[in-house]
Write a structure and sequence with these properties.
The complex is a heterodimer. Chain A is of the alpha+beta class. Chain A contains 7 helices and 14 strands. Chain A folds into 2 domains: 80 residues; 108 residues, no CATH class. Classes of the chains: A alpha+beta, B alpha+beta.
């Protein structure tokens, strides 16, 4: 500090100081966009995402490149319990490889933008329990009453046992199964496989039993045409993706791009 | 002549009625609660079975990653949430091998059969969801 005052008074050494200050300013200016210590970066990304994605928890992990300050090798974002109206899932994890994050936007306007990346992976995990809960909520909202609905994951299938009043099925679809209706009820079992095309979930019944009768395959195929797609997965902004793979695991459905 | 024609018609109708009754009985018999189970998987060769096991384990590893933001330290960590059991390679009877490593700053995993030569290959593994047989 003393040295600084001494130098600033000395007219001969003034240009050297100006040079030092200017070069420092240039250095700070040019490295600003690149330098960002890791912990604040993680929390700033999480903060920016919290502005646009309302979910229980957002976790961010970044892996910096060894030599280039501020550059990232990988960025991992995990959303826990994302908004149910968009996607009734338990976990969504996004993985960017070599992402180039717009640090100026992040710093100035607290918005998360990835300018470029070499690879992008997203996975969505939905548990058996979440599906049961979602079904209960939907049934309540639509005034759809049922006596029994058991969902079990038996990879690669989903098994469903049900006992529903015939009136719970829309009239146009009810005609298809009216021969199987007994005492105004439909009780039975179904084995399904899931497919996903362009974020639309398609259920493929493999075996359907209604009121003690195995439903013939031509009728099952017709039913498949009528009920699909059973669900359209909404994109969670700001991520842009198409889910194209679905797998049934022991207690979860796993969607990925 | 006409009587013969009627008799033939009668037999045809009786045959059709029997076929329909048989079909309906079959559907009824197949629809009992004891048949509330998924269809049997077709029998496959050991190679197809090993590939299918590797793919299933790989999906479970990826799902574990989605939940925990890291790959499982060992395949047994997937039990009971993602799989029932790790299972053995059909030809050697040994458990599948699992390895974690770093590449381009990203964690990666490889699941392989214990002895690929039994499948007439130098290597048979799945890495990052992609199956390789060399």
């Amino acid at each position: 500090m003393a040295c600084f005052f001494k130098n600033s008074c000395g007219t001969q050494r003034f240009p050297a100081h100006v040079m030092m200050v200017v070069s420092s300013a240039i250095f700070v200016f040019f490295t600003f966009s690149d330098s960002y210590s890791q912990e604040p970066l993680d929390s700033d990304i999480a903060k920016a995402l919290r502005k646009v994605v309302k979910c229980e928890k957002i976790e961010v992990k970044t892996k910096p490149e060894n030599n280039k300050g501020g550059k990232l090798k990988a960025l991992l974002i995990r959303l826990v319990a994302p908004p149910k109206q968009i996607l009734p899932a338990d976990y969504v994890t996004v993985q960017y490889t070599n992402p180039d994050i717009d640090l100026i936007s992040l710093k100035n306007s607290n918005s998360f933008k990835v300018k470029s990346y070499s690879n992008f992976k997203i996975g969505v995990l939905v548990s058996e329990q979440t599906i049961q809960n979602e079904f209960k909520k939907t049934a309540k909202r639509l005034n759809f009453t049922y006596n029994k609905l058991l969902i079990k994951f038996t990879p690669p299938y989903i098994e469903v046992e049900f006992d529903v009043p015939a009136t719970a099925i829309p009239l146009k679809d009810r005609k298809l199964v009216e021969k199987f209706i007994k005492n105004k009820r439909l009780e039975g079992y179904a084995t399904l496989r899931l497919e996903i095309q362009d974020n639309k979930i398609i259920a493929s019944p493999v075996k359907v039993i209604l009121n003690h009768f195995l439903v013939p395959m031509p009728l099952v195929s017709e039913f498949k045409k009528r009920i699909n797609p059973i669900y359209q997965i909404q994109r969670i902004r700001p991520f842009n993706y198409n889910l194209v793979k679905v797998d049934i695991l022991k207690q979860h459905i796993f969607f990925s791009n | 002549m006409r009587k013969n024609k009627l008799l033939v018609l009668f037999y045809i109708l009786a045959g059709i009625a029997l076929a329909v009754i048989g079909y309906v009985s079959f559907l009824y018999w197949q629809g009992s609660a004891s048949n509330y189970e998924p269809p049997q998987q077709p029998a496959v060769s050991p190679q197809e079975r090993a590939q299918s096991d590797l793919e299933h384990l790989s999906r479970a590893v990826e799902a574990y990653f989605i939940k925990n933001m890291e790959y499982p330290p060992q395949l047994e960590s997937l039990i009971p949430e993602f799989i029932d059991r790790v299972g053995n390679d059909p030809l050697s009877g040994k458990t599948y091998q699992y390895r974690l490593y770093e590449s381009d700053g990203n964690s990666r995993y490889r699941i392989s059969v214990p002895d690929p030569t039994l499948y007439l290959a130098k290597e048979l593994y799945i890495e990052d969801g992609m199956l390789f047989q060399k």
